[in-house]
Amino acid sequence: MGIFQTRGVAPANEAIEYNRELTMFNGTFNFPSEFRGPPTPEIDAAWMRISQGVKPTRLTLEQVLKIGKFDTPSKVKFREEDGGGYMASMEVTHQLHCLNMLRKYTYKEYYQNFDPSFTHPKPDVFRTHLDHCVEILRQHLMCTADVGMITYEWVTGFSEPYPDFNVKHQCRNFEKILDWGYRHAIHLPRDHVASPLAIDDADGEGSSEKLLVAGGVTPPSSSSLRVPWLVHLGVFSLYTIAFLGFFVFSFGQDPERPDDTCFLEHSMYCMTFPTSNLASKLTRIKAPAREAVKYSVVRFNGSLEFASPFKGQPTPALDEAWDRITTNNSLWPIRVSDEDLERIYKGGRASNVKYRELDGGGNMASIEVFHQLHCLNMLRKYTYPKEYPEVQELWKTRPNFMRSHLGDIKPHFKWTSEALNALADHCIDMIRQNLMCASDVGVISYDWISGWEVPFPDFNTYHRCRNFDAILDWAMEHRVRIPQDHMLRTGKEISLPRPPA
């Protein structure tokens, strides 16, 4: 969520509304959803509606400056006779587009013959697109740093504790924001978008291509500036200084601030804060990891060639970076009290996994963000089949596990076609629910860049983020290292729902 939206700057802020009822993320492996299952025209239409179906909107010059962007000569504008303004999009629809790209890759046998992304004559373009999407989603998940609690239960037929991914969250009303996007969409032919006659310094230090594709983070050099742009830069600087001063004053580290009502065990964040009775009730509920939550201003880098330690061709260093943020691809267990379980609506279950009293007692739980990043890492590895043959091998040794995680269709699967359609593409759907709950109304602007015939989106946007490292450190400090045979199994088990026959 762009930090510049916190006080109503983003155009779509007027559409932000919080659901009065808590939203239960459904992580059940065979949970039926309109977004899940083997590809159908209906599933593709559902994804199109929440992502690429939402067309760009327009910004005023004042809004461009307030979101931390510059009025450079390369900025994409609409013609004055069409109402003028600057082309822009909402971040949430781009994030969902990226997730849809990864979903399609898990069904590449279906999409590779007709989807434009798969049929591009240059395979490296598709590869760059996939890497970009993984990186954008990683930055989002680490920014939101969901501290919701995944609890564990004893389940019939399983010898190990089973994670309960069904967790309640306080969410933005995604449909309200989506409706705003459709109502404010600009439907104009491409030749009605004003293109500059020339872009100065097209290949120099200040070129848009360097800034947007290669990941530069400085404003254009003085050699490429025009006099009006200098005026806008001065205005922007005043906005930035004023905002940062207000930001530091308003969002300190005081854990009892009423503005933090949404940063509780329901884990999603509020940029404009609800005033309902539900919100006042939630102020008394505190997740165990909330004490580690701190905030800072972060600039997402969505440049296609941004050299991130988490992005690109797999290397030992890259894998080590992912292992660190996914806690070695495991859900590090922590200890929560019976009172904590009551607060997250999971108390009183006889099937809850408990530690023995001589080991300190309490209940087994994990933090959601590490599961979400684990899911994204699974998808990343799947897009590199040669580099991660062990992931492909899992299709042979654990086909049900991989099918439910990622969503590919394998001929040795024994269930009926109806059952396959009901199966959960678990990782895709968990991230989708996170993105739609957060409903990031941050603004993506567009530029003309050399070598591109269409407007190019500037994915480098500012956000108010949680300090992920502080939460990771908290998880390490509170990690419980107890053998499985020290966990109490009371005999009170639950059964998992079966897919339809």
Automatic annotation (TrEMBL):
Q: Which organism is it from?
A: Gymnopilus dilepis
* Biochemical pathway: Mycotoxin biosynthesis
* The keyword Transmembrane helix appears for this protein: yes
**Family, similarity comment:** Belongs to the ustYa family.
Keywords attached to this Swiss-Prot or TrEMBL record, sorted alphabetically, are: Membrane, Transmembrane, Transmembrane helix
Query: Where does the sequence pass through the membrane?
Result: 229-249
Q: What is this protein called?
A: Tat pathway signal sequence
GO BP annotations listed: mycotoxin biosynthetic process
